[in-house]
Design brief:
mainly beta; five-stranded antiparallel sheet; 3 helices
């Protein structure tokens, strides 16, 4: 298997990058979490022929990005987060990070954010596919408070993941997650990836390598009426 050459980065270099890039965005509320070591992900086996526009976030943050980004408080989350997570993007250099904390001037506070773009769902490839990595260094809230990541079509959530420790995949990226969007075939939709953070603590998730694929073949079940029709 081919591994990313970025794993050869020396930990000292990454430590410098982390010190310069972690001030505005952190994985834990205190901003004190430190990684055990850098984790190089595997290269995807699919070379991205079916990626949606900027589906690997390589155009960088807006205004260059094909995605519209919303965050509260304002904290850009499309970029290279290797120096904060010690895990590089699943594909290429950049990805999208939802959840986590942002220093809005009064200390680290949980971040609610999303990225959206308008895409058309082809009849031949109506299945959405993506990868994520989830991590929550802070303890789960005493009572579940609704912290979750989501994918939405026209504002309706079609996939969700609670941002709790039980959902952690760190330091690994997930296998391809698939969502059937055939109900929107031949339509243009607002596709959104985001994270909702409530209360004092939250988790983190990064998304990457977003594709539209054909999905599994549909096997039609024959009926006796259909069989008889063949021999009329």
């Amino acid at each position: 298997m081919r591994m990313r050459t970025r794993w050869t980065l020396m930990s000292g270099i990454l430590a410098v990058l982390m010190a310069s890039g972690a001030a505005a965005a952190t994985l834990d509320r205190s901003g004190s979490w430190t990684p055990p070591k850098f984790q190089p992900p595997l290269l995807p086996t699919n070379l991205g022929d079916a990626l949606i526009n900027d589906g690997s976030f390589e155009l960088g943050p807006p205004p260059a990005s094909a995605w519209t980004e919303v965050a509260n408080p304002t904290c850009g989350r499309i970029g290279d987060f290797t120096s904060v997570w010690y895990v590089s993007a699943f594909d290429g250099t950049n990805d999208y990070w939802a959840g986590g904390y942002c220093d809005g001037g009064s200390g680290n506070v949980p971040l609610t954010s999303s990225v959206t773009q308008t895409i058309t769902i082809p009849t031949a490839t109506p299945q959405l596919s993506f990868h994520y990595i989830a991590f929550r260094p802070d303890a789960d809230d005493a009572a579940p408070d609704g912290d979750h990541a989501y994918v939405a079509a026209n504002g309706a959530e079609v996939w969700t993941l609670p941002l709790v420790r039980a959902s952690d995949t760190y330091p690994e990226w997930s296998e391809a997650i698939t969502v059937d969007l055939s109900a929107y075939a031949d339509q243009s939709i607002a596709l959104t990836f985001g994270g909702i953070s409530e209360g004092g603590l939250t988790g983190n998730i990064r998304f990457d390598f977003i594709e539209l694929t054909a999905g599994p073949a549909i096997v039609e079940t024959a009926t006796w009426g259909a069989v008889k029709a063949l021999y009329r």
